[in-house]
Design a protein that fits this description.
Largest sheet: none
Structural class: mainly alpha
Strand content: under 5%
Distance between the termini: 40 Å
CATH topology: Methane Monooxygenase Hydroxylase, Chain G, domain 1
Number of helices: 6
Length: about 220
């Protein structure tokens, strides 16, 4: 019975992760396509759905612990699902931040072509998907690949930061618009970081290796 409940919870996690992926995509695609309605729907429609799912899963997880008093691996899995539920809610908050900055940018000419941010968004959404899939399937290699992709996001963030510093230095009137692009970049980076945190926990559960604070290279030692 407990195993069935855990399976149901995992399905809920997948559904929430899928919604968060869509929020990330919509919050950046809306900027690229200059689609105000798509951006507004992230906060008005998607965020309440994520919050409702978060509350329901939180209650379910607490109920599982109280009703079944799980031990050993079952308890570790349930506690990790509880943590992932919180992480997905935070990812949704970051997607809302991106949508809000994108709405501001729709009202103003862009200060530079949108190249790095759409690439970061695609990578971040895929990392969310793969981190959850790695947990569901107990897939250590997939979790490792998510951790490895975090450095790609960091490089794109740094490139975007450097270019925007040049824009602001050359044109002070572009500072506010540039800061909103930096905010989008930072929120995408945080989503990638949270996906990496999930994957690090998966690696620990599956392989018994702690790479948090040591980096992905510690797996090869």
């Amino acid at each position: 019975m407990l195993e069935e409940k855990i399976t149901d919870f995992k399905k809920e996690l997948v559904g929430c992760a899928t919604l968060v992926e869509h929020m990330i995509e919509k919050s950046t695609n809306g900027l690229v396509r200059r689609d105000k309605a798509q951006l507004e729907s992230v906060e008005r429609v998607d965020e309440p759905q994520v919050n409702a799912l978060n509350n329901r899963m939180d209650e379910l997880c607490t109920s599982l612990i109280a009703q079944y008093q799980p031990r050993a691996k079952d308890l570790r899995v349930i506690l990790m699902m509880l943590k992932m539920n919180d992480v997905l809610e935070r990812m949704g908050d970051h997607a809302v931040n991106i949508a809000q900055s994108s709405l501001f940018l729709l009202e103003n000419p862009l200060v530079k072509p949108l190249v790095d941010i759409p690439e970061m968004a695609g990578l971040a959404a895929q990392m969310v998907r793969d981190s959850i899939t790695a947990f569901i399937n107990e897939d250590g290699p997939l979790a490792k690949s998510v951790c490895e992709r975090d450095s790609i996001i960091d490089r794109l963030r740094d490139k975007n930061y450097s270019e925007l510093i040049e824009v602001m230095s050359a044109n002070p009137s572009a500072i506010e618009k540039s800061l909103n692009l930096l905010r989008i970049s930072r929120n995408l980076e945080r989503i990638a970081d949270l996906s990496t945190n999930i994957s690090e926990d998966v690696i620990f559960i599956v392989e018994g290796k702690i790479i948090k604070h040591h980096g992905i290279n510690s797996l090869n030692r």
